[in-house]
Amino acid sequence: MNHPDNLMLYVAQPEVSAAFYAELFDIQPVEQSSTFVLFILQSGLKLALWAKHMVEPAPATIGGGCEFSMRVETRDAVNMLFEKWRGLASNAVMRPTQLDFGWSFVIADPDGHRLRVYTLDV
User: What's the pLDDT score for residue 90?
Assistant: First the structure.
């Protein structure tokens, strides 16, 4: 059985988004052109950035309609990543906050795609 292994984000400027994610995750793309960029994250998940004007069929919506979520082990880890990432060219959508499920923050990439970091309350 095949399993999803690729997250595709439609972006306005792949080069700008590539620089954002390279710094965010401290990795370099394995493939890069003016319309497409591919990262392989530590988990093995592939993160693809595709120029939205090249997508066929054209997307009905982009940015902010879903979240890319990352679980960390502790509240301190959430806080540390928030401090590190908020200095990037990102938009802090939500500062570290207690929610029903745990401690979490949300930032947005240059295209408005949301990235949530959280730890679960146990």
Answer: 65
| C-alpha radius of gyration, the chain, whole number | 15
**Residue ranges of domains in the chain, CATH in brackets:** 6-54 (3.30.720.120), 67-120 (3.30.720.110)
Closest C-alpha among 38, 43, 42 to residue 8: 38
Handedness of CA 21, 17, 62, 50 (dihedral sign): negative
Per-residue pLDDT reduced to its tens digit, 76-94: 999 999 999 988 766 899 9
Task: Tell the residue number behind the tokens 């990102």, with chain if given.
Answer: 90
Diameter of the chain measured on Cα atoms: 44
- Distance CA(57)–CA(60), nearest Å, equals 9
Q: Report the phi/psi class of residue 9: left, alpha or beta, with left for phi > 0 and alpha for psi in -120 to 50.
A: beta
What pLDDT sits at residue 122?
A: 72
9 neighbors 48 (Cβ within 8 angstroms):
yes
